[in-house]
Write a structure and sequence with these properties.
Number of helices: 12
CATH class: Alpha Beta
Order of helices and strands: HEHHHHHHEHEEEHEHEHEEH
Distance between the termini: 16 Å
Pfam family, one: HAD
Protein name: Haloacid dehalogenase-like hydrolase
Radius of gyration: 19 Å
Helix content: 40-55%
CATH architecture: 3-Layer(aba) Sandwich
Organism: Verticillium dahliae (strain VdLs.17 / ATCC MYA-4575 / FGSC 10137) (Verticillium wilt)
Structural class: alpha/beta
Strand order of the largest sheet: 3-2-1-6-7-9-8
Number of domains: 1
CATH topology: Rossmann fold
Length: 298
């Protein structure tokens, strides 16, 4: 471990000044999106209890696809003409109606009806153990081990449907707080308490919602925003990534998020070519982050 810490010798900020590391979950900690895993868990639960869904799950998925396509295909300006960050953020924030409608359809389908927080937590833990959910290389054996040794505070902010599921997946790690949506026992998805009483109106669904959650977390935990590092992989992370020091998880330089940022004039460098002034870089996994060094030494 001391050898690992000696490698922390270049990037963004002095590691003695770090307040917190804030991570997205799906695609950032995990290698893949886990929403389909959650859906499979709900379907299996209803089969075990001999309950039928109010509507076929495929219809829920297809309805979301239609809404998303309708919004993106008719939005003006088109992607090629959205060349500023403000234009892109307006487009992304406008997806909230699409996402909220989908959350509502999930609840109406009753795919998660009757499940409690413990059910989701146990399912998350089992999904990690049996390999259904896989974590990015280096997350557990290097990154989290180093974070624990350095006493860095670790938080998760996610638009995932179930914070209990996330907690189950990450039960073996010292996560301080998970800010995400939750599924009630009636199957309805509600938002996290940090943004007000949990309800359908406070769900985390867009990049702006996550930015509000990050701001609330910083205030609640009395963090110095200048010394927070955020990790994300998708366009729902854009506002958080640009508001602090940001690390994008991407298998290469052509991910949707990186291309979107470059199109809007935001510079993104590979972590292997980092200079000390950069606020936003990308890496393929946590092993790569640790091998090239994450923070300047004390």
């Amino acid at each position: 471990m001391q050898r690992l810490l000696r490698r922390l010798n270049t990037m963004l900020i002095d590691n003695s000044q770090i307040n917190a590391l804030v991570l997205d979950f799906d695609g950032t900690i995990t290698k893949q999106d886990t929403i389909s895993v959650l859906a499979s868990i709900g379907q299996a639960f209803q089969r075990r209890h001999h309950h039928s869904l109010k509507q076929p799950w495929t219809s829920v998925v297809e309805a979301y696809g239609r809404d998303f396509q309708d919004y993106t295909s008719t939005y003006v300006p088109a992607p090629v003409d959205r060349t500023t960050l403000s234009e892109e953020l307006k487009f992304l924030r406008g997806l909230r109606d699409v996402e909220s409608a989908s959350f509502g359809r999930v609840g109406d389908s009753e795919i998660f009806h009757g499940m409690n927080k413990e059910d989701f937590s146990m399912a998350g833990n089992e999904a990690l153990r049996d390999g259904t959910v896989r974590l990015h290389d280096g997350f557990s054996e290097e990154f989290m081990a180093c974070a624990a040794l350095q006493n860095w505070r670790i938080y998760v902010i996610s638009v995932n449907w179930s914070s209990s599921f996330i907690r189950g997946v990450l039960s073996g790690f010292p996560i301080d707080t998970i800010i995400s949506n939750e599924i009630r026992s009636d199957g309805i998805i509600v938002g996290p308490g940090i943004l007000g009483p949990p309800s359908k109106e406070t769900v985390l669904a867009t990049c702006l919602d996550k930015a509000h959650a990050l701001k609330a977390l910083v205030a609640e935990q009395n963090l110095d925003i200048d010394n927070v590092v955020y990790f994300g992989d998708s366009v729902s992370d854009i506002e958080c990534l640009i508001s602090v020091k940001g690390i994008i998880m991407s298998s290469g330089p052509d991910s949707s998020l990186i291309k979107t940022l470059k199109r809007t004039g935001v510079t993104v460098q590979p972590i292997t070519c980092i200079d000390k002034s950069a606020n936003l870089v990308w890496a393929s996994n946590y092993r790569e982050i640790m091998s090239v060094a994450l923070f300047q030494p004390v």
